[in-house]
Amino acid sequence: MLNKLDTLESLVLGRRLGHSLDAPFYTSPEVFAADMEAIFYRHWIYVGVEPDVSEPGDVATVEIGKASILIVRDDDNEVRAFFNVCRHRGARLVDEEKTTVGNLVCRYHSWTYGLDGHLVHAPHMGSDFDPSCKGLKPVNLRSLEGLLFVCLADNPPEDFDQLAARMAPYIAPHNVRGTKIAYQSDLIEMGNWKLTLENNRECYHCEANHPELTVPLFAYGFGFSPEEMDPIDLENAQRYDALRATSHDEWEKMGLPSREIEELDTRVSGFRTERLPLDGDGESHTMDTRAACSVPLGRFSTAKLGGLSFWTQPNSWHHFLGDHIVTFSVLPLDEGRTLVRTKWLVNEDAVEGVDYEIDRLIEVWTATNAQDAALVEMCQQGALSPAYEPGPYSPNTEMLVEKFIRWYVARMTDYITK
Q1: Which InterPro entries does the UniProt entry name for this protein (predicted)?
Q2: What is residue 224's predicted lDDT score, i.e. its pLDDT?
Q3: What mean pLDDT comes out for the span 392-406?
Q4: What is the spatial distance between Cα 386 and Cα 393, in angstroms, rounded to a whole number?
Q5: Contacts of 11 (CB under 8 A, 6+ apart)
């Protein structure tokens, strides 16, 4: 609860640069409600991939706060989004996370909707009833080369198309639309959604907490302090910098855009991308750094293409490799619980047990997600303590956390001042 001295406006406008947020941002139900209104009901939210609805009639449901959303592939193979609410008396149409239908039928009174959202059958409504104005309410949807984003607002941020134009050349070679979901994990972290994002936006904690992830992934890719390193770490960091430069040159000669684009706090639809080299044999996010799937993505002839990292504000990060893709969406449940949904995608022609093994495919990120969940819970417990006060971010390793918080504060400032 907010105390008598705190208001949302005073908290937002009083945020200290370079420091974590005041405790109510992580613990207050009132701030959480404002987060949903200002952030998750107004911005482009990553919800899944086109392979979630791979065939006409496929339906996937996604919960964003109080809103339940249907993602549907219609008979013309177009992906659409609607609110999961019957236009008769408001019953929820689909309860399952995924299903396949011919039409969308409300089991309450049998109102029936086509896959394009139009009402096609409403029994016993009389001759004066006009079904044309009672179709399902649409939700704004964009597919970024197969990554699905929705916006619940009537007037969504207009800059998403600019983001898409810049990111499409990076993502397209991995051919998301030509993949299938090999595995999905839903993990509830016992912490505020902003702590989940803060934890993701830095690798300051990686060496001490992620022994699996730091086998293929260089922690140096997200900042370091050379003056504080011992000779071995400094040598590894310098090796990484050299590998990064030569790898970018090689990948771009292959037609793979690779260099950093960083706009996390400079636009409403903030994002960041860069293709990063991997350690060891450098093929994939696995414990031996070799490909987890023997069938490459897209038209790749090799899996040794580094890992393309793509982040979006406020709720996603993704890793595109030569042999598979890992996508993450963050969906707040309440002020102290957050759903982290992870999907592992492989070439649609790959066969489980022949071309890939699930355990090996998911090993690194399953371990990393569990470790991150423990860290987020630890921070949530600290934020609940009367001793908590905002602490300083490292300027060398937590600069991307600061950019996330600046983006968040700017969006909240817009919310309270307009």
Answers
A1: Rieske_2Fe-2S (IPR017941), Rieske_2Fe-2S_sf (IPR036922), Ring_hydroxy_dOase_asu_C_dom (IPR015879), Rng_hydr_dOase-A (IPR001663)
A2: 55
A3: 95
A4: 20
A5: 21, 22, 24, 25, 31
DSSP codes, 183-215: EEEEEEESS-HHHHHHHHT--TTHHHH-TTTTT
**What's the confidence (pLDDT) of residue 396?**
86
Can you say how many angstroms the Cα of residue 345 is from the centroid of all Cα atoms in its chain?
Answer: 14
pLDDT single digits (tens) 148-168: 999 999 999 999 999 999 999
pTM over 0.90, yes/no: yes
Q: Provide the residue type at 212 as one letter.
A: E
- The helix or strand, by DSSP H or E, that contains position 376, with its residue range, turns out to be helix 358-383
CA distances to 74, 100, 129, 181 from 85, in Å: 18, 18, 19, 27
Report the C-alpha dihedral over residues 247, 248, 254, 256, rounded to 10 degrees: 130
Q: What is the pLDDT of residues 280-317, one digit of tens each?
A: 888 999 999 999 999 999 999 888 899 999 999 999 99
Give, to the nearest 10 degrees, the angle between helix 193-200 and helix 399-417: 150
Residue 31 host element (H or E): helix 29-35
Tell me where in the chain the CATH 2.102.10.10 domain(s) lie.
46-143
Pairing of the two strands 179-189 and 147-151: unpaired
How crowded is residue 94: how many other Cβ atoms within 10 Å of its Cβ? 20
Closest CA to 143 of 258, 44, 64: 44
Backbone φ and ψ of 278, nearest 5°: -110, 155
Dig out the tokens for 220 from the structure.
């140096």
Dihedral angle computed from the Cα positions of residues 210, 215, 217 and 223, in that order, rounded to the nearest 10 degrees: 60
Tokens at 88, concatenated = 């008769």
Q: Give the distance, in angstroms, between the CA of residue 333 and the centroid of all CA atoms in the same chain.
A: 15
Tokens (6 digits) for 48: 């899944």
Options 3.90.660.10, 3.40.50.720, 3.10.20.90, 3.90.380.10; which CATH number does 161-417 get?
3.90.380.10
Q: What number does CATH give the domain 46-143?
A: 2.102.10.10
Could you tell me which of 234, 176, 212 has the C-alpha nearest to residue 53?
176
Three-class SS state of 254: coil
| Residue whose token pair is 């070799």 | 290
- Both tokens of residue 214? 């730091």
Question: Looking at residue 141, what is its pLDDT?
Answer: 98
What whole-number distance in Å separates Cα of residue 5 and Cα of residue 371? 36
Q: Rounded to the nearest 10 degrees, what angle do helices 193-200 and 358-383 cross at?
A: 120
End-to-end CA distance of the chain: 24
DSSP 40: I
